């Protein structure tokens, strides 16, 4: 049986010595109380264990962000809570629970629906981090007497700066700074990221050695309130579909769509466009949504000119430090998660909106998604994409 807070595998302790330096919170770890957001997944479980190895006073908190009494049988909250309880039992720590469903609905889901009504494609995970995980959860943890919080995100925080800087994770394949760019630096000053120096296989190895039942649990993908169902089936419960026509780039009608909100720029599958007498056999892609006419524009060719842009304009930007970078600074950007860094230069308007020019043409940049900016390893912040400029 595992001793609470320890793993049987002695070799795991060697990796603990390599943990990225953690902030003191003005007291030694033994006098510092950290509450870990425990989702029932392997990442947050190992995050809690690593902090215990550092000597912190560790507790867990399971967040319920979606009410299951609305017929959403696809949400796995019940199973996730049981997994979190099993891990807390192995570690011998207290597990709190909190219901942030109201905050999630008001601050995240309403915005999610509004964006789809406007024909854009939002990223609710970014807003969830900003409004729930690093605001509602952090505030709740502080009311419980905690000195700070920790999560299982793959990211790093530089607490030598005030406010703290957000840095990329060592595991570039798992780095989650894209989803964290809208959080404020002063909130990162109260946050620990114990997995920032690890790669995912090592995390699973640690969880297995610790005896966590979730050590082989599949990584969660997508959004809890959608779960494993078809996205279209979920969305039509809240937004009425408005079918319309699909046209090519010359204005010819080539099909019908079931509602603009169900399609994303660059999408290839699910268009239902068959072979056409005056067209070649190249696949069709979504290139534009004409909201005024409720028409979907589709083109042939992966790199059709209508799919490409060299500049984008954004909504007002959020800067983690609170200050925009110097004008003309050479930065890199991502317009979607897992995209390779793209060299760019930015202009910041008086209203805080950005004009971002790229060195290379960008494909299928999508309004409603986020453009996130980096200076080397530092994530500076970002903004929601408003429009593209071909």
Automatic annotation (TrEMBL):
Residues 314-385 form the tRNA-specific 2-thiouridylase MnmA-like C-terminal domain. The active site is at 128 (nucleophile), 224 (cysteine persulfide intermediate). It comes from the Bacteria. Keywords: ATP-binding, Cytoplasm, Disulfide bond, Nucleotide-binding, RNA-binding, Transferase, tRNA processing, tRNA-binding. ATP binds at residues 37-44, 63, 152. Pfam families: tRNA_Me_trans (PF03054), tRNA_Me_trans_C (PF20258), tRNA_Me_trans_M (PF20259). Residues 174-176, 336-337 are annotated as: Interaction with tRNA. Residues 123-125 are annotated as: Interaction with target base in tRNA. It is found in: Cytoplasm. It catalyses: S-sulfanyl-L-cysteinyl-[protein] + uridine(34) in tRNA + AH2 + ATP = 2-thiouridine(34) in tRNA + L-cysteinyl-[protein] + A + AMP + diphosphate + H(+). The record marks 153, 369 as: Interaction with tRNA. GO terms for molecular function: tRNA-uridine 2-sulfurtransferase activity. Residues 232-297 form the tRNA-specific 2-thiouridylase MnmA-like central domain. Its EC number is 2.8.1.13. HAMAP family: tRNA_thiouridyl_MnmA (MF_00144). Belongs to the MnmA/TRMU family. Catalyzes the 2-thiolation of uridine at the wobble position (U34) of tRNA, leading to the formation of s(2)U34. This is tRNA-specific 2-thiouridylase MnmA. The gene is mnmA.
């Amino acid at each position: 049986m595992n001793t609470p807070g320890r793993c049987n595998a002695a070799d795991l302790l060697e990796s603990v010595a390599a943990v990225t330096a953690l902030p003191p919170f003005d007291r030694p770890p033994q006098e510092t109380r950290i509450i870990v957001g425990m989702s029932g997944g392997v990442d947050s479980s190992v995050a809690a264990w690593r902090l215990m190895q550092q000597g912190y006073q560790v507790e867990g908190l399971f967040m319920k962000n979606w009410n299951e009494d609305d017929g959403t049988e696809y949400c796995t909250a019940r199973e996730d809570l049981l997994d979190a309880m099993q891990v807390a039992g192995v570690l011998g720590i207290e597990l709190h629970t909190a219901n942030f469903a109201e905050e999630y609905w008001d601050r995240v889901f309403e915005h999610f629906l509004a964006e789809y009504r406007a024909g854009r494609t939002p990223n609710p995970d970014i807003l969830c981090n900003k409004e729930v995980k690093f605001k509602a959860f952090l505030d709740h943890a502080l009311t419980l007497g905690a000195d700070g919080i920790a999560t299982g995100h793959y990211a790093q925080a530089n607490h030598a700066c005030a406010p703290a800087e957000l840095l990329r994770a060592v595991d570039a394949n798992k780095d989650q700074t894209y989803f964290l760019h809208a959080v404020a630096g002063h909130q990162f000053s109260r946050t620990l990221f114990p997995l920032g120096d690890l790669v995912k296989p090592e995390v699973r190895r640690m969880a297995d050695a610790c005896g966590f039942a979730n050590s082989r649990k599949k990584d969660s993908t997508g959004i809890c309130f959608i779960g494993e169902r078809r996205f279209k089936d979920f969305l039509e419960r809240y937004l009425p579909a408005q079918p319309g026509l699909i046209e090519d780039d010359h204005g010819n009608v080539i099909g019908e769509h079931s509602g603009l909100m169900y399609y994303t720029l660059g999408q290839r599958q699910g268009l239902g466009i068959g072979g056409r007498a005056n067209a070649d056999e190249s696949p069709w892609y979504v290139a534009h949504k004409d909201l005024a006419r409720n028409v979907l524009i589709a083109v042939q060719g992966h790199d059709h000119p209508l799919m490409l842009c060299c500049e984008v304009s954004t909504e007002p930007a959020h800067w983690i430090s609170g200050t925009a970078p110097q004008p003309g600074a050479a930065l890199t950007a991502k317009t979607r998660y897992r995209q390779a860094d793209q060299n760019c230069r930015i202009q910041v308007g008086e209203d805080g909106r950005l004009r971002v020019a790229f060195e290379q043409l960008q494909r299928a940049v999508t309004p409603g998604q986020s453009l996130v900016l980096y200076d080397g390893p530092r994530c500076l912040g970002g903004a929601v994409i408003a429009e593209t400029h071909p």
